[in-house]
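Bug #77: duplicate submission created two jobs. Keeping one. Sequence:
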Amino acid sequence: MGFSEEHVIEALTQTKNDFGSSLDLLARKAAEQDRKELEAKKKKKEEEEESKRREVVGVKTAESRSGDNVAASRMQMIGSMMAMGFPREKVIAALVKARNDVDQARELLLNDEV
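Kept job's structure:
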């Protein structure tokens, strides 16, 4: 566990040079920093996944008419796979993983790889 000299001095100052309390303070601050970093990574990952989901179903706010046709096509892809009995969430996940390749997505669903 490495702490910067600045943080160590600050901890010792705050705890009036109590070594044990300083270590506790440093450990708590490090744990808090780790928690914040994990939360930031989790949030970024969730945002990326949501972006991928939106891309698959064509939910974009300023799509052109051709974009609307693409969205309709994607909705048809989803509907046809759902008609095969697959849940919507799995269909979307398979299309994301297969980068909208319907045949590959179907294989992923059939092999239960999503």
